[in-house]
Amino acid sequence: MKLLFDENLPPRLVSLLSDNYAGSVHVRDIGLQSAGDDLVWRCAQENDFVIVSKDSDFHHRSLLLGFPPKVIWIRRGNCSTREIEVIIRRYQDEIAQFWNDPLGAFLVLS
Prior knowledge:
The protein is of the alpha/beta class. The protein has one domain (2-109). Helix content is 40%, strand content 17%. The protein is built from 5 helices and 5 strands; from the N terminus they run E-H-E-H-E-H-E-H-H-E. It has helices at 13-16, 37-47, 56-65, 81-90, 92-100, and strands at 2-5, 25-26, 49-53, 71-74, 106-109.
């Protein structure tokens, strides 16, 4: 499973989580920094990414449009890169189940 980290998340997460999520990228790495949600959504659809964001916009978009792509919404206020890494690692089994769930559109982690 490949994750696409939204611009509101640190780019360093790509390298920190590469052991479990090879092929993941940050929007900055693929020229989508400051891109609109439509472009990020389309990129995720076309490249089989799961969008990871702290922004509720992708959660709302998921409710309106369905999936793909699937969306992981990290509901956490200001926090460190390390805290986000820990959250994603702590829930890696749930993330894998979510990825394999044919009806799962979004997953909320906090």
